[in-house]
Amino acid sequence: MRPIIALVLFSLANLCFATGEGPRAIEVKVSVGTEDGKMVFIPDHLEFERGKHYKLVIHNPSNEDHYFSSDAFGTHIHTNKVEVADKSGKTIVEVHGAVHALELKPGATAEWFFYPMRNGENMKLYCHKGDHEEKGMVGTITIFGKAPFSK
Ligand SMILES: [Cu+2]
Question: Does position 18 have pLDDT exceeding 80, yes or no?
Fold first, then answer.
């Protein structure tokens, strides 16, 4: 019995690696806008700790386009990839390389896989669509903690 369990666990671990998100990505969800059209990010403050691997799930539940933009955030992380899925949830696009803004169409979801690299406190998050920022579509992102291999 034991070898079979070990084999199953081993296969599961391989599956995790095969998806490219690693076994320990911490999932964090954020909404850009709301179903009833409010100009907000929910939550409007995000925190990430160095030494951990994150999967930030950005969803637009509203009826209009919204951005998830943060120039500083983009320079404080290492982006592994951004995945975009179709309506069935199947990944149709993978974006690799540095990213600092995403525009999400109504109903869209994107998954941003990254490692926090440098500390930053209350880095500005905003939506630069039309006058959304002035209407309240702003937030902050903090990266804290020590580098993984420092004492
Ligand atoms: Cu917006």
Answer: no
